[in-house]
């Protein structure tokens, strides 16, 4: 009986060790991920926001439209810049990408003003205003489509065009927004201080892309390891 119990305990030890080695590699560090983080800043003089007089539907839109600032005057951080990663050898996989993107027209303003999304994903556009808006989507100065949005209506549209897309209202020309459509599921946008972080990235070499509709975009090669987060600082002219 004693020998039987010893053999049983030994067998249990072998099975447990096998489970740790093959089924739970995180215990030994094999499942650790890396990360890239940093800031995007504007090196020049902080641009001033412009005020545009409104003459169409002022009862809904107001008397003037104030452009959104894209540089934080306190630290020159670039807000809402798009940061994306692509593997140099093959496509990366991630669970961070959204299945749908949502924007809203409210008080004659398109929110959010800058959006990033994966190609062939759907965009849900809601009109919270009681008036008609006609949104024109253009890519490289070529019109992709026009979307009439009746008062308090909404439309679901699939985007199959890669690259930057400019959106404006044909009735209220001061209304505009920007999309960046990409083929990578790993992306984020900077906060009001220009800071960003992409966690849970597999180790390896990547192409880091930084895009903002009013500033010069850049690409650079980076290497991510699981030892410590990669910290970078980027200037956009």
Class based on secondary structure composition and strand pairing: mainly beta
**Biggest sheet, spatial arrangement of strands:** 7-13-12-9-10
The rounded distance between the terminal residues' Cα atoms is 79 Å
Quick one: overall form? globular
Strand content: 35-45%
Low-pLDDT regions: 8-13, 17-30
Please write the string of helix (H) and strand (E) elements: HEEHEEEEEEEEEEEEEEEE
Q: State the helical fraction.
A: 10-25%
Q: How many strand segments?
A: 18
Estimate the mean pLDDT confidence: 85
Q: Radius of gyration in whole Å, from Cα?
A: 24 Å
The biggest beta sheet is recorded as:
5 strands, mixed
Q: Report the total helices.
A: 2
Polypeptide structure, described:
Strand 16 and strand 17 form a beta hairpin. This protein is mainly β and 237 residues long. The strands form five sheets. A five-stranded mixed β-sheet has the order 7-13-12-9-10, with no helix packed on it. A four-stranded antiparallel β-sheet has the order 14-4-16-17, with no helix packed on it. The protein has a four-stranded mixed β-sheet with strand order 6-5-8-11, with no helix packed on it. 11% of the residues lie in helices and 44% in strands. It starts with a helix and ends with a strand.
């Amino acid at each position: 009986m004693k020998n039987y119990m010893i053999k049983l305990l030994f067998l249990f030890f072998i099975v447990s060790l096998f489970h740790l080695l093959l089924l739970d590699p995180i215990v030994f560090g094999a499942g650790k991920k890396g990360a890239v983080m940093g800031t995007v800043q504007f090196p020049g003089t902080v641009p001033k926001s412009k005020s545009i007089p409104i003459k169409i539907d002022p009862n809904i839109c107001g008397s003037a439209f104030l452009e959104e600032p894209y540089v934080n005057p306190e630290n020159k951080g670039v807000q809402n810049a798009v940061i994306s990663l692509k593997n140099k050898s093959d496509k990366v996989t991630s669970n961070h990408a959204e299945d749908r993107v949502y924007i809203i027209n409210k008080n004659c303003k398109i929110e959010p003003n800058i959006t990033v999304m994966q190609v062939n994903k759907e965009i849900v556009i809601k009109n919270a205003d009681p008036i008609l808006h006609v949104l024109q989507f253009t890519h490289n100065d070529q019109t992709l489509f026009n979307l009439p949005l009746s008062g308090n209506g909404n439309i679901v549209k699939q985007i199959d065009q890669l690259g930057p897309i400019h959106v404006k209202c044909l009735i209220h020309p001061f209304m505009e927004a920007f999309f960046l459509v990409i083929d990578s599921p790993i992306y984020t946008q900077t906060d009001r201080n220009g800071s960003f972080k992409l966690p849970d990235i597999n180790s390896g070499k990547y192409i880091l892309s930084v895009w903002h509709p009013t500033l010069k975009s850049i690409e650079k090669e980076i290497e991510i390891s699981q030892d410590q987060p990669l910290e970078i600082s980027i200037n956009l002219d």
